[in-house]
Amino acid sequence: MNLIDRFLQYVKFDTQSDELTNLTPSTPGQMVFARHLKDELKEMGLKNITLDENGYLMATLPGNIAGRKVPTVGFIAHLDTSPDMSGRHVSPRIVKDYDGGDIVLNAEKNIVLTPSDFPELAHYVGQDLIVTDGTTLLGADDKAGVAEIMSAVDYLIKHPEIQHGDIRVAFTPDEEIGRGAHKFDVGAFAADFAYTMDGGEVGELEYENFNAAVARVTFKGRNVHPGYAKHKMVNSMRIANQFIIMLPRWETPEHTEGYEGFYHLVGMEGSVENTVLTYIIRDHDRDRFERRKKEFEHLVRKINKEFPGCCSIEITDQYYNMREKIEPVMYVIDIARDAMEKVGVTPKVQPIRGGTDGAQLSFKGLPCPNIFAGGLNFHGRYEFVPIPSMEKAMQVIVEISRLVAERQ
Ligand SMILES: [Zn+2]
Known about the structure:
This protein is α+β, with helices and mostly antiparallel strands. The protein has helices at 3-10, 28-44, 140-158, 186-189, 236-246, 286-306, 323-326, 331-342, 357-363, 387-406; strands spanning 47-51, 57-61, 73-78, 93-95, 103-106, 111-113, 129-131, 167-172, 193-199, 204-206, 211-220, 262-270, 274-283, 311-319, 348-349, 370-372, 385-386. A hairpin with a 5-residue loop joins strand 1 (47-51) and strand 2 (57-61). Zinc ion binds next to helix 3.
């Protein structure tokens, strides 16, 4: 089976993850997909295939170099798709030789993928694109990555003249709900370093991500009949509002880019008696990140000066910038860059404005930058993937495998 057939088959598996189940994998569909991949790996002849009860599938393509020790490189992709949009009954369609105009995804529902909303489409004129029917996401995030890894392994098996060391592959559950690395057994994976194939557009290479925390700010009020409330009522929602406007107005996701951090109000739930604000705090720079958290505590103290005992806060770190773990092993990035250039792709190194499983894995001792899988407009009905981008990603995996073995 070729890369595209694989991809089209994989998107048929409904593997949407679910934050609320507290199970691993969070949904049974992911395990169904993992079992399918396991059988496929077995058929291809991979070794040490393991699928644990949490849905982590690992396997080895043994090296074909005798008498010389070569580092073990890993490739990782995730099984699940985003909870943001249905991944059930995905019916992909191939748009041949894209002409640069509107793509009608669904005529009946008038859903159109148009360059005026998505100017990136212009980069893909003349290419074959895989799109949705407008009712589901596509699942290129990250089934493109899965298909690329499977096909690269298949290619290496069929081209024994390409010399490579041991290659480890892993497919993991629940990346989209932030738990993909939680139960990943880095010791069992036993790679020297790895790459997640989970980036977007062709050329993306990422080894910097946000430092991330979540803050829950609670405001306690006092409810009294409004007719008798003078000097008695304390409205926690109004105090919460005061807190919201004390934060710098422009340091929000919609006003920042590149290395600019932000505070992002993701939830508010309130009554007169009790209001809870949930924020996420993000910054690439560790010092600035710590300062942002301090700023929250400072504002809580300020509120409490005016309304004693009203406000409390709970801040939990979520993940950290992997840069500090990659810098000591920069050759991992150099190899990926060289591999891209070898297959005619210009590397685009950029900071991720989010996290990746690779960031958490890097802190667990497995340096793990992120490489493009090729798709765009993830997590929604406008998701699409250019076929040549997927082919390039697959070639990058093959090329990395070769370069790792060549480097000594
Ligand atoms: Zn992804």
